[in-house]
Structure prediction request, 377 residues.
Amino acid sequence: MSSSRHSYFVIWRFVISNFWIFVCITAGEHQYLKTSEVGGDSPRNHTNTHISLPHTHFDESTSPWVEQVGEAPKVYYFHNFLTDTERQHMIKLAVPYMKRSTVVGGEKGAGVIDDIRTSYGMFIRRLQDPVLEGIEKRISLWTHLPLSHQEDIQVLRYQEGQTYGAHYDSSYDKDEFGPKYRLATLLIYLSDVEEGGETAFPKDSIYTDPSIPVRGAPWSDCAKGHVAVKPKKNDAVLFYSYFPNGTMDPASMHTGCPVIKGIKWAAPIWIHVDQFRPEELKNMEVVKKGQPPDPGVCDDYHAECSNWASNGQCLHNQKFMLDVCRKSCKECEHCALFDLPCVNRNRAQGGYLPIDREEMKSLGVDLWQQPEPSPEL
Ligand SMILES: *[C@@H]1O[C@H](CO)[C@@H](O)[C@H](O)[C@H]1NC(C)=O
Ligand SMILES: *[C@@H]1O[C@H](CO)[C@@H](O)[C@H](O)[C@H]1NC(C)=O
Prediction:
């Protein structure tokens, strides 16, 4: 049995390595794959955009390649999926809006805070800029699933002790609570983690090859004995919640193991059986307008704010006013440029993640770094 699994793995590696050789040969020097040919079925104008494929010498540690690690569930590991620049761009977009995560399961499927999930997170709007669009097209290309079936990319941060308990990403029964019909999950790692933080499949999961966990050791107790992968920045893991016949795969239950040492940044993208909010894609230009206000910045976002505030609206219309008129409601303080402690006080009032300069530096993100004063001439 294990030898047949082993040969499956060998065949798979053969197919994958030759896939890239094939891609490199067919991509040639100046030829690219048109996105319109790779599931770019969003209604935006893609005439002028292409995905270029790497055309360098194959090197396991830097070239993109795919490895199947799970037989049950089907788990695929994408090596070197993102570039450093793309990863840092995603973190930069996400950091201002990172808030305590919720889980689906409230009334009418609303997000609720639950101790099963103790991280901070946010969703990056789809197709927000060319970098993000490039990443989303690559996801479509690598998963062979259309871009319009992807949810917004979520960005999550787990610190020591934080975890996401075992759960399924999709429910099968129409009447069951929980998210519906997420065919596959792609989890992109945005940081390395010193210890713990593995993505593990605790329910009867089977490796494609018994040598994989041996090569990957050591594992935290949470991951030991199960199919599991370690977070590594720029890499990603893909798994399916359903069998090809459309029934749910019980082995797709998974958990974000507790982070033991370090901080884990990761970005799950759920890919649905059907298009995800197609009406939103049709109105992309509308959706893109109006970035939410930065919670670290103290400002009013409507010309009438001071009038409304003096009419007592800060109390009577609290929810709206605290979003739109924080300054007039005196719910924040004006911060000098680069006064991060002040910005963090404003953020804390709204339940947002305090920004840590050292952590940002270790991720290669220069948010909130005061520029070096230019030398006197
Ligand atoms: C799409 O974009 C190209 C290049 O910018 C332009 O020439 C073309 O007219 C556009 N097509 C549509 C349908 O807007
Ligand atoms: C669907 O496929 C799975 C895995 O091969 C199998 O265990 C299950 O019995 C199948 N279900 C149906 C209804 O065919």
